[in-house]
Write a structure and sequence with these properties.
alpha+beta; six-stranded antiparallel β-sheet; Immunoglobulin-like
């Protein structure tokens, strides 16, 4: 009995060493996107100007100012708030460009939402001074949320091909 209690105490103390951190959802930088928000996109003429503004300012998700990223992996149980251990998987320019390619293609989305989903990953996109510029949340069910949101931002349920591409891309960096 004593040895069983000792083993339980040892396991509890070892598990406690890997403490999870609750994610606080820091504010995302909006400054780059505001420059095209004065247009009334309900008017066709202004919608065209809005599209030109987006092209001229090279607005994309993630923004062109992003230089690196961090992949945070949820280790909470279903129904609990997002939490991660201190291990952050760093993401390079190759990941960012491939991610941008996947999320900017409308054909990769089924659109719509499935309701409340369990978040598997949060990706934080940072500029050269580590300022949070963009954030993506990816659910285990294949839904994608992007912040900040602007007129050409894609979001919602990804189709099977895009879901496979994205999770394959993430798994390469998850192992690093």
């Amino acid at each position: 009995m004593k040895s069983t209690l000792g083993i339980i105490a040892l396991l509890f103390s070892l598990y406690s060493c890997k403490e999870s951190v609750k994610y606080s959802y820091p504010k995302v930088e909006f400054e780059n996107y505001i420059q095209c928000e004065e247009f009334d996109v309900a008017l066709r003429s202004e919608y065209l100007e809005y599209c030109e503004c987006i092209q001229k300012n090279q607005l994309s998700f993630p923004t062109k100012k992003v230089e690196r990223g961090r992949l945070l992996i949820n280790d909470a149980q279903i129904g609990e708030p997002f939490q991660f251990n201190d291990e952050k998987h760093l993401l390079d320019a190759s990941f960012i460009e491939k991610f941008r390619e996947i999320v900017s293609d409308s054909s990769n989305f089924r659109w719509g939402e499935l309701g409340t989903q369990h978040t598997c990953y949060i990706i934080e996109f940072l500029d050269a001074s580590d300022k949070l510029m963009n954030r993506a949340t990816i659910t285990c069910g294949g839904m994608l949320g992007l912040e900040p949101s602007f007129g050409v931002t894609k979001w919602g349920l990804m189709n099977h091909a895009a879901d496979s591409m994205l999770f394959s891309l993430i798994s390469k960096y998850e192992k690093m």
